[in-house]
Amino acid sequence: MPYKIITKRMLNDTIALMEVEVPHIAKKAEAGQFIIFRVDEQGERVPLTIAEYDRKKGTVTIIFQTVGASTKMLNAFEEGDYILDFVGPLGKPTHIDPVTKRVCVVGGGVGNAIAYPQAKALHNAGIAVDMISGFRSKDIIILENEMQSVTDNLYIMTDDGTYGEKGLVTEKLKALLDAGTKYDEVVAIGPVIMMKFVAATTKPYGIKTIVSLNPIMVDGTGMCGGCRVNVGGETKFACVDGPDFEAHEVDFDELMKRNSFYKEREAHDKEHVCRLTGGKRHG
Amino acid sequence: MANMSLKKQPMPEQDPNIRNKNFKEVALGYTGEMAVEEAQRCLQCKTAPCVAGCPVNVRIPQFIAKVTAGDFTGAYSEIAQTNSLPAVCGRVCPQESQCEGKCVRGIKGEPVAVGRLERFVADWQMQNGKDEIKRPESNGQKVAVVGAGPAGLTCAGDLAKLGYSVTIYEALHTAGGVLVYGIPEFRLPKAIVAKEVNKLKELGVTIENNMVIGKMNSVDELFDEGYEAVFIGSGAGLPSFMNIPGENLLGVYSANEYLTRINLMKAYLKDYDTPIAVSHKVAVVGGGNVAMDAARCAKRMGAEEVYIVYRRSEQELPARAEEVHHAKEEGIIFKVLNNPVAILGDPKGLVSGIECVEMELGQHDASGRRSPIPKEGSNFIIDVDTVIMSIGTSPNPLIRSTTTSLEANKYGCLIADESGATTKEGVFAGGDAVTGAATVILAMGAGKNAAKAIDVYIKEKHQQ
Question: Which of A63, A90, A117 marks a domain boundary?
Answer without folding.
Answer: A90
